[in-house]
């Protein structure tokens, strides 16, 4: 650990903060539907996900050799300042989307940040445009479609097969199955996303000459990255969990099971057939698919559209923030210091804004939408788009405790 | 720039088959081991209980699902 310069130290800390926001942001992927169907208590769900993320970080022997998977040319003079700027952009975007309660891909935020910083510091030669299309854009479009169709088909099938059975009886089985699927998603997330941070830290250490090129990450890097992602997961991005578990559609146990199994299958199939899909988009897509698969199920398209807009913005927005950060950081030591102080200020402001309408494990299952329940409403919603979402996301999160209970009966009647 | 349609198609196919297969099997497990719907509060403990055959079939379906989960863990660990 000798000769770690202050700058490398800052990069390591920033990478761990990004890892934290990554866990924080992606808890929803594994646990949102598990929490909303009542398969697990909120606190237990995030604790389980955190432990599996930590385990996952230690499991994989395949180390992230490249932090960006070939999107940026890492030999073209990527200095610690560039990595730092890229991470800052990714963190800021992750926190902004968290504030809005929108699930967006943490990997895309990291890619976008690194691309933006590289463009400013190195130039267009440092970025492989073809790789951006192949590794980011195509998977982003494909992921929700693949996962959505699979989950929709599975939801249809399971409702058909389980017709005529006591719903309370089958719900127990569905919940148990869902826990298993959610555990797989958490484990896969730990192996993938903790690896990314390890790759970033290792790359920073290599550029600083602390460890030899092509070396495996030291144990303390693996441990700290695993801890950061687990801590983030445990603290839970309750805002995003609410959006995915309650905001997109009303999820019943069979749907939750179908959605989660579809997500687990998509993630494992894609990462092992060499066409990696983003976990966030897979999970969101499968939740939408399960909403469409149930008769009388309603997908709130206004929420879905907001989410898709956030996906489209993730790469450019994180890139833009990082480009600005890189411009500043390139000015020398004071620039790096300025970026760090600005980033801290922005994170503090976002956190302060979140406290005005806190969402935590106590109110995560309250419905987000305020439309009055009723069979007619449900029927109308299937043929007409639901009322446009409020532009200000804070307003959209107005808790409506009364709405959740009657909705469930409505759905049963309609289904 | 070329889109790897073959890989995408493969992912789609495998995902669809595995998801529908596992969810279907698990549902068979649930249906096999759950009671049939009985009328209201008059149901006694034995009413609508599944037959031995259905229960065995359900348990077998559960076993296949458990194997699939084990294979999933193997894929994650061996990656």
UniProtKB/TrEMBL annotation, chain A:
Keyword Transmembrane set for record: yes
One Pfam family linked to the record: PHO4
Location in the cell: Membrane
Spans annotated as Disordered: 383-415
Keywords assigned: Membrane, Phosphate transport, Transmembrane, Transmembrane helix, Transport
Ranges annotated as spanning the membrane: 7-24, 44-61, 82-101, 136-159, 197-215, 221-241, 304-328, 334-353
KW Membrane (keyword) present: yes
InterPro entries: Phos_transporter
Membrane topology: Multi-pass membrane protein
Low complexity biased stretches: 399-415
Family recorded in the similarity comment: Belongs to the inorganic phosphate transporter (PiT) (TC 2.A.20) family.
Record's protein name: Phosphate transporter
From TrEMBL, chain B:
Superkingdom of this protein's organism: Bacteria
Bilayer-crossing regions: 12-34, 54-77
Keyword set, alphabetical order: Membrane, Transmembrane, Transmembrane helix
Protein name: Secreted protein
Organism of provenance: Streptomyces catenulae
């Amino acid at each position: 650990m000798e000769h770690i310069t202050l700058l490398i130290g800052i990069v390591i800390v920033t990478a761990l903060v990004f890892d934290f926001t990554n866990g924080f942001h992606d808890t929803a992927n594994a646990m949102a539907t598990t929490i909303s169907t009542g398969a697990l208590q909120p606190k237990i769900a995030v604790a389980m996900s955190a432990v599996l993320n930590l385990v996952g970080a230690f499991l994989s022997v395949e180390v992230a050799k490249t932090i960006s998977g070939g999107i940026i040319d890492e030999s073209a003079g990527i200095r610690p300042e560039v990595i730092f700027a890229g991470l800052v952009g990714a963190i800021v975007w992750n926190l902004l989307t968290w504030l809005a309660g929108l699930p967006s891909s943490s990997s895309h935020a990291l890619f976008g940040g690194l691309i933006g910083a590289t463009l400013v510091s190195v130039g267009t030669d440092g970025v492989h445009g073809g790789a951006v299309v192949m590794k980011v854009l195509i998977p982003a479009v494909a992921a929700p479609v693949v996962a959505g169709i699979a989950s929709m088909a599975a939801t249809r099938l399971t409702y058909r097969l389980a017709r005529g059975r006591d719903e309370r009886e089958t719900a127990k089985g569905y919940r148990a199955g869902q826990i298993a699927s959610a555990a797989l998603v958490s484990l896969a997330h730990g192996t993938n996303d903790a690896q990314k941070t390890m790759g970033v830290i290792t790359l920073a250490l290599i550029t600083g000459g602390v460890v030899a090129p092509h070396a495996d990450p030291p144990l303390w890097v693996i441990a700290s990255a695993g801890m950061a992602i687990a801590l983030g997961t445990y603290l839970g991005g309750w805002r995003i969990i609410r959006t995915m578990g309650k905001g997109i559609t009303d999820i019943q146990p069979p749907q939750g099971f179908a959605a989660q199994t579809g997500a687990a299958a998509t993630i494992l199939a894609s990462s092992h057939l060499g066409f990696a899909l983003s976990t966030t988009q897979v999970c969101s897509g499968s939740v939408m698919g399960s909403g469409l698969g149930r008769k009388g199920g309603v997908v709130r398209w206004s929420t879905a559209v907001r989410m898709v807009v956030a996906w489209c913005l993730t790469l450019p927005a994180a890139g833009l923030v990082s480009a600005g950060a890189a411009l500043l950081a390139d000015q020398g030591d004071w620039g790096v210091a300025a970026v760090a102080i600005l980033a801290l200020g922005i994170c503090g402001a976002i956190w302060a804004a979140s406290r005005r309408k806190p969402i935590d494990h106590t109110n995560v299952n309250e419905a987000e939408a305020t439309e009055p329940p009723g069979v007619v409403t449900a029927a109308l919603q299937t043929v007409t788009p639901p009322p446009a979402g409020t532009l200000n996301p804070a307003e959209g999160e107005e808790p409506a405790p009364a709405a959740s209970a009657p909705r469930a009966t409505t759905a049963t009647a309609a289904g | 720039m070329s889109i790897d349609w073959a890989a995408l198609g493969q992912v789609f196919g495998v995902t669809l088959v595995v998801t529908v297969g596992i969810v279907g099997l698990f549902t068979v497990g649930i249906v096999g081991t759950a009671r049939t719907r009985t009328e209201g509060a008059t149901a006694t403990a034995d009413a609508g209980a599944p037959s031995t055959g259905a229960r065995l079939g359900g348990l077998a379906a559960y076993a296949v699902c458990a194997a699939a989960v084990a294979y999933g863990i193997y894929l994650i660990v061996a990656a």
